[in-house]
Amino acid sequence: MSEFNKDDYLNDLPDADELAAGQVAPEGDADQAEPESNNDAQSSEAQGEQRPNEEPAAPEEGEEADSVDGKLTPLGQAKKEAAEYLEALQRERAEFINYRNRTKKDMERARQQGIIDVLAAELPALDDIDRIREHGGEMDESFQAVAAKIDKAFEKFGVEKFGVKGEDFDPTRHDAILHKPDPQAEKATVDTVVEAGYRIGDRVIRAARVVVASPQE
């Protein structure tokens, strides 16, 4: 490594006159000048940039009026006809629903009436079977099988048999053929079932014919 020579270093320094004339810039000034040049370049580039021309959005077109000077336009006439068709369709739909409901009720009523007609024709035979059972009459196996099938057949169609000794007397379900005073009775009850009653749902086909035990006055 060469030795530091003070005289050579001093000779290499610029003169004061050169510094005053601005021929040589100090290192600090050179560093500051570089950012300024960069800023100038950026500003020139920014000035040189041009934004593309943007086309203005097309104005929205207003909807066509339904009427002009009190007269319907084609669009207004179409809307009117559509509303009329919709109203007619809704009316027809409501009428169809009512018709369907009436038809279902009529079919169910006709079905019940058919069952009632068959049951009414069979009531005398059913009463005879009940009397044989009540009085302890002997029935052979074949007769018992036929009676059981008849009972199941009516149960299948919703026919319910009612009328039991000891139940409360109900004038809407029982037909009292005789009232018998009973000193032990606190209210009117069924004492004897002469003929059983039959019903389908809430509809009584035949009221049960009974003897009523009434409280003694």
Automatic annotation (TrEMBL):
Record bears the keyword Chaperone: yes
Record's keyword terms, sorted: Chaperone, Cytoplasm, Stress response
Stated name of the protein: Protein GrpE
Annotated coiled-coil segments of the chain: none
Single GO MF annotation: unfolded protein binding
HAMAP family in the record: GrpE (MF_01151)
Biased composition (Acidic residues): 57-67
Gene Ontology CC entries for this record: cytoplasm
Primary location group: cytoplasm
Regions of compositional bias (Polar residues) in chain numbering: 35-47
UniProt key word Cytoplasm: yes
The family this protein is said to belong to: Belongs to the GrpE family.
Matching Pfam families: GrpE (PF01025)
Any GO BP: protein folding
Region (Disordered): 1-76
CDD domains reported in the protein's UniProt record: GrpE
Subunit structure: Homodimer.
Function: Participates actively in the response to hyperosmotic and heat shock by preventing the aggregation of stress-denatured proteins, in association with DnaK and GrpE. It is the nucleotide exchange factor for DnaK and may function as a thermosensor. Unfolded proteins bind initially to DnaJ; upon interaction with the DnaJ-bound protein, DnaK hydrolyzes its bound ATP, resulting in the formation of a stable complex. GrpE releases ADP from DnaK; ATP binding to DnaK triggers the release of the substrate protein, thus completing the reaction cycle.
PANTHER family: GRPE PROTEIN, GRPE PROTEIN HOMOLOG, MITOCHONDRIAL
Location(s) in or outside the cell: Cytoplasm
PROSITE patterns noted in UniProt: GRPE (PS01071)
